[in-house]
Design a protein that fits this description.
Length: about 325
């Protein structure tokens, strides 16, 4: 049986356009999936529906066969088994790290509570900060506390709604790799929402792309990179150069080989130093402006350049 099942979810807010359109997705136990979509594509709405915190118009959510009720059907909306973590940490400002993590366990047995909090502090590397208040911690550490708080009830499903947006790139990368290991160790099923492909790739190999409330494509990043279903999926991974005479087909900068004498001629307009290559802006004889990757860093503005690519790498038509 599928562990977490989202079945044809439909959602519109009052008098509004549909925000989610027949959205279906199946997750296995312990699977970590990154859901990527532009701002306004319905990602947060979807997570709130999965958590049982937002009413859906149609469709169902099941966790191990148990139907997740809409908030209007329940006295206390939401489920202990499904925890949602947001970007803003929702921590108790006057409680220590330890107390924050213990807070959802108020009604639990003291020895269980102590054991659980100790385990989470250790897993999250927060032992030495356990007495500190949230404001005495960095953004990354505060986010760890928020995740610890969400994990204290031993949820089976953790929903992460852009939880790292306020952190800088290095903090994000480190935190994501630590959390990824922890999620595997705890066998928790995770749906991670982001609009950042890098964050998504750091977190998991299972990607789901959402556009305007619809699931566009899901699968391994390599599959989406080589066989994107639409222009949005294709553009997520790199710039696309439109083929001359066929504006619906494209070639990626990384799939173009550069030569000094044979191939399709172009002229180098600009050169930008990037970490692994120089990005060249070039103009083709037909007038198109393209981006290409000069991995050997050998071309300069004003120079002639010649291009070749494998017809199999052409993307589209879209
Ligand atoms: N409570 C609400 N009432 C009315 N409309 C809403 C409500 N919440 C969200 N929306 C609308 O639903 C659409 C989807 O919003 P949602 O927050 O789910 O998208 P998102 O993909 O999470 O966006 P972002 O990445 O910016 O957080 C948007 O057009 C938004 O304005």
């Amino acid at each position: 049986m599928t562990y977490l099942r989202l079945d044809k979810i439909q959602k519109s807010y009052e008098n509004g356009q549909p925000v989610l359109k027949e959205f279906s997705l199946n997750l296995e136990k312990g699977q970590v999936v990154s859901l990527i979509g532009e701002s306004g594509s319905g990602k947060s709405t979807l997570l709130r529906i999965v958590a049982g915190l937002e009413n859906r118009n149609d469709g169902e959510v099941y966790l191990e066969g148990m139907r997740i009720a809409n908030p209007k059907e329940k006295l206390v909306p939401g489920y202990d088994e499904i925890q949602l973590v947001y970007q803003d940490y929702h921590l108790y400002p006057n409680s220590s790290v330890e107390e924050n993590i213990a807070r959802p366990l108020l009604l639990y047995d003291k020895s269980y509570k102590e054991k659980r909090v100790k385990t989470l502090l250790k897993l999250l590397g927060l032992e030495k900060y356990k007495e500190k208040l949230p404001r005495q911690l960095s953004g990354g550490q505060q986010q760890k506390v928020a995740i610890g708080k969400a994990l204290s009830l031993e949820p089976q499903v953790l929903l992460l709604d852009e939880p790292f947006s306020s952190l800088d790139t290095i903090q994000r990368r480190e935190l994501i790799s630590e959390l990824r290991e922890m999620f595997v160790a705890l066998k928790v099923t995770v749906l991670f929402v982001t609009h950042d492909l890098d964050d998504a790739l750091q977190m998991s190999n299972d990607l789901v792309l959402v556009q305007q409330g619809k699931l566009i494509q899901k699968g391994h990043p390599e599959e989406i990179f080589t066989k994107p279903k639409n222009l949005y999926a294709a553009k997520l991974f790199s710039h696309l150069n439109p083929l001359p005479g066929d504006q619906h087909c494209y070639i990626r900068p990384s799939d173009i080989q550069l030569y000094k004498s044979t191939g399709i001629p172009a002229k180098v307009k600009e050169r930008q130093y990037l970490v692994h290559y120089n990005q060249l802006t070039i103009q083709l004889g037909t007038g198109e402006i393209w981006k290409v990757e000069d991995k050997k860093r050998e071309f300069f503005p004003g120079q002639k350049i010649f291009l070749k690519w494998d017809a199999g790498k052409v993307i589209g038509p879209f």
